[in-house]
Sequence to fold (265 residues):
Amino acid sequence: KNTNAMKNKKAREASLKAKFRPPKILKDLYPGALVEKDMKYIPKPGKNRLYDKERDFWYQQTCIDSFTRIRTLEVTEDFKNKTVTLAYQRAQKRMPFNIACMNVDNGSENQGEFAKYLQATNVFQFYSNISTPTDNPRVERSHLSDDVEHYNRGNIYNYFKQQIMATSYREYEYNYLRPHQALGQMTPMAFYELWKENPEKAIEITEKWQKYLKKQSIRLSEARRIKKREQIDALMNFIDAKVNNKNNLYDAKLQLINCQLCSIA
Fold:
């Protein structure tokens, strides 16, 4: 029993997998420290809303470096383990640095053969919490940009080769032409070149962005608290008018139309 337990422990230690989120320090450590991976469904044109997953979609396999925002986009016809693994192997060659860690969701495409390939190439695999897209924020945000800037403008095709070409251009555009606020309005490739020449300057840009996000988070949190206090006051006014039969009941009710604490209106 003890021998088997020790074997299992060693197997877990050598698996290079962890069912938890990566440490926050990895996000802006340096290129390749952490890559976020996710799959995006691309609905083929001319289909109805009752989609068939095997027939009515292309599948965009996205990898984004958390530090530089450099992305690779691979379009596949299905999301089987073998297909996703081959797509990742092609994408890996376009990354200008080695990948140490990867954060993925719990989808079936990230298990089996794909997980074994990561282990074989010494890539540590982290998993997001189930049904928690905010655990993979940078790749999820990039998918929103894809919709707004690319796919919603007609860059979806029924023919696989056409879709590959369109998505390939999107990768080039994202890495070489599109400026990013988080990178000091530099493109991902330009930011990567800056990091190679002057790492301190690149880190200074990311730290400035994180300070801005923290300040915005505090402002939003305070705004929510103020709004909640206003809503509670509006609810108290309504209760007072209702219970005490006051004449201002109608006005008090109107104040609850946008109230998120109740469903009176």
